[in-house]
Amino acid sequence: MSRRILVILILTIAAIGFAVAVFLYPREEAPLYQATPASAQASATSAPTSLVRFHSPSFGPANAQVTVVEFFDPSCEACRAFYPIVKQMMEKHPDDIRLVLRYVLNHQGSEEASRIIEAARKQNLFVPVIEALLESQPKWHDDPKILAAWAAAEQAGLDVAKAREQMMSADITAALEKDTADAARIGVRGTPTFFVNGRPLTQFGAQPLYDLIKSEINKGR
Questions:
Q1: Sign of the CA dihedral running 134, 140, 144, 149
Q2: Measured between alpha carbons, how far is 102 from 34 in angstroms, rounded to an integer?
Q3: First-residue to last-residue Cα distance in the chain
Q4: pLDDT per position in the chain (221 positions), as tens?
């Protein structure tokens, strides 16, 4: 069974439940979401500095009891498969979970896709563009020019001409470099890699992730 078929299978199962996904899709080696304002992101976490940086995109309540950090590659098929799973977890616990994304650039086209997403963030289109890129990922995953990613982003509302200027800005470059350095320092070897309130997910899969999140939620009750 090809990797792409496995991804489609997981996306179908994710709509029904989390438990089966862990058995069907390996980590790749190497949103509902409302973005939290950057001013709140810097002060709303107790996680280690190397896990959460002030520039990191964040979704969910700034004061959520649980902070989930995902090291994420937009070109990674497993990250695409996990997106609806994490989204469903946040829908189930809207007041309790905050998601922080960190970029990992393991694949061909990963850096350019990440720059597109960050340019979309500057245009207040982060969520529609990241979802458009993930939905269209099979069309651009193996394309070094990722033309289908640009087309999907434009269809989601991105001003492409403006984005091509924004994507090479010094702050986006610095953010990607910092994420890369932190991933190496922490020892991230595959995507997606999750930390929940600073605790690493040691057994990869949807159900183990949910169990770890739920255990952290229960600590405060």
A1: negative
A2: 17
A3: 43
A4: 554 544 444 444 443 443 333 334 455 544 333 343 333 333 333 345 689 999 999 999 999 999 999 999 999 999 999 999 999 999 999 999 999 999 999 998 999 999 999 999 999 999 999 999 999 999 998 888 999 999 999 999 999 999 999 999 999 999 999 999 999 999 998 999 999 999 999 999 999 999 999 999 998 66
Q: How would you label 126-163 residue by residue, b for 16+ Cβ within 10 Å and e otherwise?
A: bbbbbbbbbebbeebbeeeebebbbebbbebebbeeeb
Fold of 3-219: Glutaredoxin (3.40.30)
Q: 49: which 2 tokens?
A: 């500095």
Rounded to two decimals, what is the model's pTM? 0.80
Task: Report the distance separating Cα 116 and Cα 13, nearest Å.
Answer: 29
Greatest Cα-to-Cα distance within the chain, rounded to the nearest angstrom:
49
| Alpha-helical runs (H) found in the chain | 3-14, 38-41, 77-92, 110-122, 126-135, 137-140, 147-155, 160-166, 170-186, 206-219
SS3 assignment, position 198: coil
Q: Which of 221, 184, 216, 179 is nearest to 201 (CA)?
A: 216
Tokens of 144: 């070094």
